[in-house]
Amino acid sequence: MVVDPIHQFEIKRYVDLLNWSEVQFSFTNSAVFMFAIVAMVFFFLTFATRGRTLVPGRAQSAAEMSYEFIAKMVRDSAGNEGMVFFPLVFSLFMFVLVANVVGLIPYTFTVTAHLIVTAALALLVIGTVIIYGFVRHGTHFLHLFVPSGVPGFLLPILVVIEVISFLSRPISLSLRLFANMLAGHIALKVFAFFVVGLVSAGVVGWFGATLPFFMIVALTALELLVAVLQAYVFAVLTSIYLNDAVHPGH
Amino acid sequence: MSEPDHSAPGGRREGPDRGTGRRPEEAELSARLERLNTELGKVQAKPEGPAKAGGRDTSSASGAALAFRLGAEFVSGVLVGSAIGYGLDYVFSITPWGLIVFTLVGFAAGVLNMMRAAGQKPFG
After folding, report:
1. Which has the closest alpha carbon to A33: A116, A80, A98, A130?
2. Consecutive 10-residue runs of chain A (250 residues): their mean pLDDT?
């Protein structure tokens, strides 16, 4: 038996759409899962809100709760003007949440355990911040990098630090989600291989295998928490960063 | 056996009540809905001030979310700093200096990130 905890992240190409010498553009298992996730979010929200009863049922309640949760979060951190970005934050949150949770089901593919996906999402957020900031505030947006109330001789250093701090946002945003999902899934697989290995060792192994087995149960619960929390963190940070685009200059 | 015994009187009692009291109940309901709407409007129109003042909730979920943030905030600052330093070295061929200076500046930026994440400007 080959112990390969990375195997689950392998990209499989189903259909090659474009195949030039260097550029390959294919329909992969990752793309399949991304389409599936979007479809799940769409159909869940559509069907959940179809009845529109005054006293919501379970599905409608879940849909309304997710809406209210994100709406409150955006309003708290970016103000009422920040509600322009509510659709963006809500879409990102639902996508990341469903991607993380779906990834926990055995034999599925975890889209967010690939850096390229999370980096694309983070760049979308930061690109929105920069473009909206410049369009709305013009050069005033650059005041974001100039902390107020600082003696003049420190200002150049602080501006450099602020710029690096700003540039590190997409990195931390994408790295955190990616690393958490990757590490959690690898840990789960490693413990699962312990179970398989011990069981094949005979009767004593059966008893030994119960320990990593319970570990897997506990880790799965932890991973569910992490999956939801990471989606929450992603959405919170998105709305905090968007706040800078709406109100630059602290 | 016991289940129908419990449900039958309850159902009988509820039936006529609901039948006769439908109209006033509905009026009351719409009045409540009206009140709820005005309350909701007030809440939504409320400026961010009060929400922010009491908003630093220390509930476990957001606490854990914060804990997840801090490490990545710091590491990303250092990473970006050293990447910039390395790039400057490459472009201007000043080999060790860009990396040295900008890793330190990146360290400072990472600490700043972390303090921001932990401090006064969080999502409350």
Report:
1. A98
2. 73 78 81 91 87 79 88 85 88 92 88 90 92 85 78 83 88 89 89 86 82 89 90 88 78
**Nearest Cβ partner of A164 from B44, B84, B122?**
B84
Distance from CA of B97 to the nearest CA of A (A): 16
- Look up residue B109 and give its two tokens: 């930026």
Check the CA dihedral A40-A41-A47-A53 and report its sign: positive
Q: Tell me what pLDDT residue A118 has.
A: 92
Q: Please, what is the average pLDDT of chain B?
A: 70
What's the confidence (pLDDT) of residue A2? 62
Measure CB to CB from residue A76 to each of B48, B65, B75 and give the nearest one: B48
**What is the spatial distance between Cα B115 and Cα A203, in angstroms, rounded to a whole number?**
53
21-80 in A: which are within 8 Å (CB) of B?
A: 54, 73, 75-77, 79-80
CA-nearest residue to B111 within chain A is: A165
> For residues A185 and A110, what is the distance between their CA atoms, to the nearest angstrom?
9
Q: With an 8 Å Cβ cutoff, is B27 touching chain A?
A: no
CB A150 within 8 A of CB A160: no
Closest partner residue to A167 among B65, B80, B108, by Cβ?
B80
C-alpha A188/C-alpha A227 separation (Å) is: 14
**ipTM over cut 0.90:** no
> How many residues in chain A?
250
